[in-house]
Design goal:
2 helices; three-stranded parallel β-sheet; 125 residues
Length: 125
């Protein structure tokens, strides 16, 4: 979901694009230095706003927790683009042979009280 700042930057980009089109139309009809300067400023503003809308990728996280006789075996995880992967086995629970591959997704595997997750790979895109 876009934040208010992201929405404002996007709206500003649209307005700068419209203004650039108008000034381009005027400058092709009647050349002058004032319009050329305005076009240069608008082009620079458009580039600046485009750079503001770029977002850095979130860091992916992988949390593994085995406690109170819980076991996690042969269940690696590969997370990309801000994935959040959690694997938890407690109270004799077992996760075995259940690797997780996630891209921009949240995945959770949890078992307890002797429960088992076996040979159940997850591939979330």
């Amino acid at each position: 979901m876009a934040t208010a700042t992201q929405k404002a930057v996007s709206a500003g980009g649209v307005l700068v694009g419209i203004a650039t089109g108008i000034v381009t139309n005027l400058i092709t009809d009647q050349w002058n230095w004032t319009l050329a300067a305005a076009l240069t400023v608008l082009a620079a503003a458009g580039v600046w706003l485009a750079l503001l809308t770029r977002t850095a990728p979130r860091r992916s996280r992988h949390r593994v927790r085995a406690a109170r006789d819980g076991r996690i075996e042969n269940s690696g995880a590969i997370g990309r683009d801000g994935s959040d992967i959690t694997q938890t086995a407690t109270h004799g629970g077992v996760i075995n042979g259940s690797p997780v591959t996630a891209r921009a997704a949240d995945v959770e595997q949890e078992t307890d009280q002797g429960g088992r997750i076996v040979d159940s790979p997850s591939d979330m895109q």
